[in-house]
Write a structure and sequence with these properties.
binds 1,3-dihydroxyacetonephosphate; globular; binds zinc ion; 46% helix; 358 residues; binds glyceraldehyde-3-phosphate; alpha/beta
Amino acid sequence: MALISLRQLLDHAAEHGYGLPAFNVNSMEQILSVMEAARKVDAPVILQASRSARSYATDAMLRHMVQAAVELYPGIPIVLHHDHGNGVESCRSAMENGFTSVMMDGSLEEDGKTPTAYAYNVRITAKVAELAHTAGASVEGELGCLGSLETGFGEAEDGHGAEGKLTHEQLLTDPEQARDFVLATKVDALAVAIGASHGAYKFTRPPTSEVLAIHVVKAIHALLPNTHLVMHGSSTVPEELRDIINAFGGDMPPTWGVPVAEIQEGIKHGVRKVNIDTDGRMAITGQFRKVAMEKPGEFDPRAFMKPARAALEALCVQRYEEFGAAGMASRIRPIPLSEMAARYASGTLDPQGTVVTG
Ligand code: G3H
Ligand code: 13P
Ligand code: ZN
């Protein structure tokens, strides 16, 4: 099966009431784990690469590895998405390298640190949407800044995130402004800020609605019932994975992520794409540490990679099932990007998310 656009996949998810985990990948091992999990449960796949993933792996390697996945798993529709594009150029180069979808994160300036003015966000996101839609690719925009409602700070542990203290208004997407933004930019999906931040240290205790504002998702969905919403920072940070890391020499203090039940509540209210990176990193790292401690004489990297791949695969299977994506891959008939481009040109795909069947 060919690569498909994010828009086609999220329209299918909306039509059938499910959500899709979007897994961040940087390597062959991560791609194979996600794909093998998807094959096991017949789930469609979103593989996403950040700017640092693209510089770590190189676009050429990512492009060819994803093409290999297409060849190895012909029954699984795959979206290749650029996570947190920081301007027209990062989005344009992603599309030139075979990405079928891009995120234009105009909530921050190109430095990935400075919160922007609303007018800038609209202008740059609309520009990327125009460019992408001509090629049939999809665009995710972001309104509001990711960060913690507990502390007021974004996180910079992976080099991307607002710097300095953010106001409550910056940390929560405004529903009325979201409606204006979607209509003005013509994005296919909207990432919302609800208090979830990137990384492992999201909440210091199990999150309540004070710090994880699912009610904001509901309010946005009520105003934009056909717009596909995206939750970033949606790792659950499972205690079991932290325990493995700590049992084998790690030192991760107690911390909480976004509970699966909250994500499922979001899925009932328009969330279609759920970004997960940290949980996968923890699954992999725990196994690396375990092998390193239990077999100090081991020096074949595959002895580390194999259990790490299995742990990531198990996590992915779990999320596909929990979000309702299992069993959906075989129900999707791929729409070529050229056909998507024609639909955008004819106005069939309005920003309100006209459902594409197939
Ligand atoms: O944007 C956040 C993702 O976890 C990607 O992280 O930039 O370290 O690849 P990264
Ligand atoms: P986590 O750090 O919670 O996995 O979030 C990843 C993400 O939002 C990537 O864009
Ligand atoms: Zn993100």
